[in-house]
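Subject — a protein and its fold
Encoding — discrete vocabulary of local shapes:
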Amino acid sequence: MDAQVARHVIRACLRSTGELQRLLELLKEQCPPDEYQTFAKAIGMALASIHIEIVNRVTSLHPELEGEMETTISRYGRYL
């Protein structure tokens, strides 16, 4: 995978994890605590899996993207 495709993959992962994190907020407001906990645990596992299985693998292929990603997020609040 070239660096441009790797950037695209990372951006897609970050968008997906952002959506799941926002979903947690809604579920916390709308679900009973025990139901929320079930979803929170599942979403937490999905978030970890996306990071470990996709983002870490992509950044291991293109280590320069890790620093680029951190710099861009700290500067703009997201990976552009």
In short: Helices lie at 3-30, 33-61, 64-76.
